[in-house]
Amino acid sequence: MTPHHTPRRTVPWCCLSIAVACVCACHAPVPTTTPRQASPPAGSLAQLNGEVFDEVWAIVRDTHPDPTINKGQWNDARLQFRERAVHSRGDQELRSVLEDMLETLGESHFAIIPHSVSGTAEATGGWSGMTLTVIGHDAVVTRVDPRGPAARAGVRNGWILTEAEGDPLATVIEPFGEPRTSLERLQRAHAIDGFVGGRPGMTPRYTFVDGGGSKHEVDITLDDPPGEVVTLGNLPPFPAEADSRWLADDEISALGVDPARIGRVGYLRFSIWMPALSARIDDALFEFRSADGVIIDLRGNPGGLGLMATGVAGHFLATPTSLGSMRSRDTTIEFKTNPRTVDRTGATVGVCRGQLAILIDGHTGSTSEIFAAGLVDAGRAECFGQRSAGAALPATTHTLKNGDVFLHAIGDFNTPSGVSVEGAGAFQRVGDAPTRADYTASLDPELRDALQWIASQRTPQP
Q: From 100's CA, which of 109, 232, 336, 381 has a CA 20 to 30 Å away?
């Protein structure tokens, strides 16, 4: 079957930007252009279109964190797009117009979620188990989940994806050129995910080129995403899972690092910041109190509930410490950590003292970025991997008159030193982010670099 192709102009979605985009792409593709209609649709539809447009426009006017938006830019947008909205012949066309208007803001966390997916009972996006990252002008496989369909089909790290069902991926990547903003990077990532994605059970054929230049045509049957399905308000459902373990010596050795230099390292990965995973995250970090190093893997984690970051960060800081502040139009809220020095039994356990490394990639967004950038700013952690999404605006939702859900930013976020995470994201400061050659040569170059850093930070033993 042919994979579902998402048009280039895909708008990022909330603190769950990548995940929501992938779920919604399987339901309602949005036309790249909206043709001008010669005459408006029937009166009732035209009236509803106008009312929905006015709703969206007014919400941004009244809640955008920058009040100066009302002094020209947003008024101009209303004049530019309202007639197109009124003339729209259906929901998809109206969404396209609204998203065109929202795109003029140049920011993440503004999107229209179709009523067909908001509040549904199951996540419908197919899962390949591979992560693609644009390095240079190529879509490189940077992660292959050993449990997933791509691994079973023989896909390897470092391979370049060139085609899906015979269609060249270059036609998706090239129009973006060199993205100048995080919004453009997110749009490119969403376009690629939509181009290669589909529903569970579909079997697209992909063409890859390996490190030696050989071509591989691979059929991958997409699975249901792993983990339990969780929901939050009127957002689409998301698969949620968490995994924790002590890294074994043979696992560390396979990455070219001497286990004797590392000590005990705890590894925690979770896919989304949702309350359903809170207990498992806490249990893992309480267990890691004796660790010489802790690695939190946030690759592919698109975000979730922002205040969860303050509790998880509290496992690593003994006193309340700012991760940054959220500024809305009327208020400023500081994200201060909540020290977790007492376990579930009431015993005093202190905090994790081992070195903290956070793994990131271009699909790491929002709450994950607030957590990572805040702890780096506080001097408590280092990040390893590709620059994160740079999509960290706190957002909320509003159900529109036509049943669609409007996701919109209500604030900005800055680290304690004043750095805006929106746009900048979190990034690797120790050495360089992995190259394609690193992905080809190593089973997991981000984990390798994190382990090497932990080893370098340990006090030499006599």
A: 232
Where are the domain boundaries for CATH 3.90.226.10 in the chain?
Answer: 241-390+425-457
Burial class (CB in 10 A: 0-12, 13-18, 19+), 155: buried
Q: How far is CA 438 from CA 93, 141, 154, 248, 387, in A?
A: 43, 11, 19, 22, 16
Out of 1.20.910.10, 3.30.110.30, 3.90.226.10, 3.40.710.10, select the CATH number for domain 241-390+425-457.
3.90.226.10
The tokens for 263 are: 């000590």
45 CB contacts (<8 Å, ≥6 apart)? 89
Q: Say if residues 403 and 115 touch (Cβ distance below 8 Å).
A: yes
Superfamily of domain 130-219: PDZ domain (2.30.42.10)
Beta bridge mates, 144: 130
Alpha-carbon dihedral sign for residues 456, 457, 458, 462: positive
Which pLDDT does position 111 carry in this prediction?
Answer: 87
User: What is the pLDDT at residue 59?
Assistant: 95
Residue 270, pLDDT above cutoff 60: yes
Q: For 318-353, how does the pLDDT look when each residue is reduced to its tens digit (9 = 90+)?
A: 999 999 998 888 888 899 999 999 999 999 999 999
First to last CA, the chain: 62
Q: Is 154 helix (H, G, I), strand (E, B) or coil?
A: coil
Task: Find all residues with CB under 8 Å of 337, minimum gap 6, and list them.
Answer: 310, 311, 313, 314, 316, 317, 320, 321, 322, 323
- Are 222 and 206 within 8 A, CB to CB? no
**Token output for 43:** 């009166």
Alpha-carbon distance 277 to 302, whole Å?
14
